[in-house]
Each structure stands twice: as C-alpha cells, then as structure tokens.
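testing teh design pipeline on a random one, pls ignore if ur not involved
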C-alpha cells in the first residue's frame, strides 16, 4: 500500500466510499414502496423514526468533536489552539444551523401551495446526512493513512449497516407526498446523502487534523439539528401537532435502533 500512487489511493477511497456510502443508502431507499403504502399516521411515525436516527447521529458527532478536542489538548497545544478549536466547533454548529434554517424558510415560502413539500424535506435530510458522511469518510481515510487496514474493514461494515437506515429516513419524507417523484430525485438524494463519504475519505488521507475534523463534525451537527427541526415542522403542518404517542415511540425507536447497530453490533460484536 505504501508504494501506491496518489491517484491509485484516491481511486481506492472512491470505491470504498461508494460501497460504504451510496450503496447502503440506496438499499435503504428500497423501502419506499412499502412506506408509500402506509396510512399517513404511519408515514409520520416513519418520519419520527428518521428524526430519532438523526438525533443519535448528532449526539455521536458531538462526542467525536470532544474526542478530537481531547486529542488537541493531549498533543500539548496551548490555550490559543484550544480556543480556536472551540470557536470552530461553536461557529460551525450555529452558523450551519442558521444558514440552513434561512434557506429552509426561503424554500418553505416558495413551496406554499405546492403538493409535494416532502421532496424538499428529503433533500434537506440528504444534505444533513451527507455532511455526516464526511465524518464517516474522515474515519476511514485516517485509518487507511495510518496503516490500520483491519480498522478500515470494520468501519466499512459498520457504516454499511448504519447507512441503510439513512436511506429509510430519506424515503420517509418522500412517502409523505401524494405524487411519486421522478427516479432522478431518488438518485440525487442518494448521492447527496452517501457521496460525501468519498470526499471525507480523501480529506482523511491528505489533509486530516483534529481541527479539520471538528469543523466538519460541527457543520454536520448544525445541519442535523436543522433537519430534525424540518422533519418536525413537516409533521406539524400535516397534523397540527408534531408530537403524538406513536411519533414519540418511533423517535425513541430510531435512537435505540442506532444504538443497537453502532454500540452493540459494531463495537460490541464486530470489534469484540
């Protein structure tokens, strides 16, 4: 591997990124016909499930931000470096949330009277998941760069399992609309959600630093917070109340599902 050229490494990371990012999202999106056949109450429950999945991902990314902050502190960095890293994290979260909220409000105003706002929410979900995928790519790229090839394999397996649920969260929004969107929309949101993993893997190999990781993680957290807000608003517009017993149960179910996939199956079973 050490003798591989830059182009060969980038091509390898591209293939790995597509397999770990785009492919499982596409598999998860195959649930669309089933979700589309459900009554609205269960479509909203599926949206709440997707919000729970996103919430777990957001919490996980915050933990990773703290881990990178600890890495900076353990490296002997001074107060200025730590302050910069903290500012990058705070501004990244708040700034991304504000920008996406502004864009979302503009989109919502433009969509008033349209019959398919769920399609636009699906794109917002895909963007949020795509920013998260950069963080996944960072993990794969840095493991590859340090020669931890077994860790790369484990991460790919874990992310495949993880990203199938992301595809489900996207089609939950699409299923809410009366009209089925053209096929190219499914292709577009699939690449938006999973494709950035390729970029993250390149970044992990050639330009990784804890501050860079914190920046992209913070952008992902801010985007996920806004997307959860967006999903909640979509349900509220449909029903007048975003919270119901069923929605609350499926939201918790989404969190539990991700916990079982990541903490129990991947870290406990595969790593164990």
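output:
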């Amino acid at each position: 591997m050490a003798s591989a050229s830059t182009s060969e490494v980038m091509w390898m990371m591209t293939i790995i990124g597509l397999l770990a990012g785009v492919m499982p999202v596409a598999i998860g999106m195959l649930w669309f016909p089933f979700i589309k056949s459900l009554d609205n109450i269960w479509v909203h429950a599926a949206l709440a499930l997707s919000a729970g999945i996103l919430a777990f991902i957001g919490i996980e990314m915050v933990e990773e931000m703290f881990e990178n902050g600890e890495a900076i502190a353990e490296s002997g960095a001074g107060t200025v470096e730590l302050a910069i890293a903290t500012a990058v994290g705070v501004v990244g979260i708040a700034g991304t949330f504000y920008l996406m909220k502004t864009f979302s409000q503009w989109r919502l105003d433009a969509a008033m009277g349209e019959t398919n706002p769920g399609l636009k929410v699906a794109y917002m979900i895909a963007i949020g998941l795509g920013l998260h995928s950069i963080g996944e790519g960072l993990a794969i790229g840095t493991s590859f760069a340090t020669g931890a090839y077994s860790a790369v394999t484990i991460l790919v397996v874990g992310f495949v399992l993880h990203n199938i649920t992301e595809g489900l969260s996207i089609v939950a929004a699409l299923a809410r609309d009366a009209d089925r969107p053209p096929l190219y929309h499914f292709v577009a949101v699939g690449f938006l959600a999973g494709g950035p993993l390729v970029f993250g893997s390149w970044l992990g190999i050639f330009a990784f630093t804890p501050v860079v990781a914190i920046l992209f993680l913070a952008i992902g957290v801010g985007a996920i917070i806004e997307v959860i807000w967006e999903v909640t608003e979509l349900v509220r517009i449909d029903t007048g109340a975003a919270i119901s017993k069923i929605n609350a149960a499926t939201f918790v179910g989404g969190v539990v599902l991700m916990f079982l996939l990541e903490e129990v199956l991947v870290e406990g079973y595969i790593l164990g």
